[in-house]
Each structure stands twice: as C-alpha cells, then as structure tokens.
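Lab notebook, bench 4. Still working through the backlog of constructs that have no structural model yet. Next entry is a single chain of 79 residues. Request: give me the structure tokens for it.
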Amino acid sequence: MAKKASILICDDEEIMRDVLGTIMSSAGYKVDLAKTGEEAVEMYSHKPYDVVLMDVSMPGMGGLTALEELVKLDAKSWY
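Model written out:
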C-alpha cells in the first residue's frame, strides 16, 4: 500500500482549516494545520510536506509571500 501524502493546511479562518483538515484526514492523509503564513513557514522549516494548501489573503504574511518562503526552504533541502 502506498504512503499517503503529508499535507499542511494554512488558513486564518478556523472553519476552513477544520473542514479541509477533516476531509483530508478522513481520506487517510497526515494533516497539520497553521493559522498564519508565519506559522506555516515555521512548521515547514521543521518538517517537509508533500502538499501545502494555502489561503492567499491572510493578515500578516499573506499566502503568496508564505509560499515564496516555502519554496526557498524547499530549495535549501536539495543542497
């Protein structure tokens, strides 16, 4: 049996995090939840994820900025 992907879900709206987390967990995926872009970057720096679902519009670090930071972290892991 193939390993299910690990997923990081980042959304400032609790209901969206909970709904997406529940759906993905019930499908057998390993899911972690972040409330902010900053929290997502911190989590990703300690653990790589196969998939990141990111809200684009959030207070503080927005989703696009956070994704840019995740790409930088991911690139470092190749060296």
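Notes after review: Helices lie at 14-26, 37-46, 63-76. The chain has one domain: 6-76. Flag for follow-up if needed.
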